[in-house]
Amino acid sequence: MGSPQRSETSRIARPDGAGEEFIQLHTAASRCAVESLSAALLVLNRHRKERAQRAGAEVPLILTIERRLIPPDVTVLEMTGRIIMGNNSRDVELKLAEILHDNAKKIIFDMTGITAVDSTGIGILVLSQGKIVKEGGTLHIAGATDFVKDVFRMTSVDKLIHLYPTVAEAVAGFEERVG
Fold it and tell me: Which strands, in side-by-side order, build the sheet including 162-164?
């Protein structure tokens, strides 16, 4: 005869009580999804920074945003640094307000130089998407690093905003949606 099947409960319930502790932790984490996400993002950011430092790479701390136009009508915000809680994260909203005031409709956030995004950054991106759509525009994100893409997948931002490997592909994505 085969061995009896074990239920999920019997697999994690251990005589030393560790299984019960896991269940309590899991339940608490489920109840506090936002806090858990923030904590997970902090840990991921710390690990990414440590890896970069070990590799001798410079980790930009300050967010910089440069605006450029790809003729005839695509506006690109090239970002470098981190979109995290702090004064600089508001710069994304300020630059976006400028370009929306100028009636830009096709907008690309070039995130090739972004090394970290936390829950504040995610909130800013989602808010930006809403503002752009409200004004009749479209937002594409280009060049997100693997770390940033992982954060987008964890938070489902990749289901809300179209991601492209390069700015050129993001520009072509506007044409595909029109044609």
Answer: 64-70, 74-83, 106-117, 138-142, 162-164
How big is the CA angle at 141 (ends 32 and 75), to the nearest 5 degrees? 135
- The whole-model pTM stands at 0.68
Do 83 and 134 share a domain, yes or no? yes
Helix axes 33-54, 18-31, angle to 10 degrees: 100
- The verdict on 74 and 128 lying in the same domain is yes
DSSP H or E segment with residue 65: strand 64-70
Check whether residue 69 and residue 154 sit in a common domain.
Answer: yes
Considering the domain architecture, whether residues 71 and 120 belong to the same structural domain is answered as yes
Which backbone phi and psi does 164 adopt, to 5 degrees? -135, 145
Tens digit of pLDDT for each residue in 86-133? 867 889 999 999 999 999 999 999 999 998 899 999 999 999 999 999
- Only one residue has tokens 């050129």, namely 168
**Which residues have C-beta within 8 Å of that of residue 22, sequence separation ≥ 6?**
12
Collapsing DSSP to helix, strand or coil, 107 comes out as strand
Q: Give the DSSP letter of residue 58.
A: -
What total of structural domains would you count in the chain? 2
Distance of alpha carbon 76 from alpha carbon 47, whole angstroms: 29
Domain span at 42: 10-54
Return the structure tokens found at 25.
Answer: 């932790």
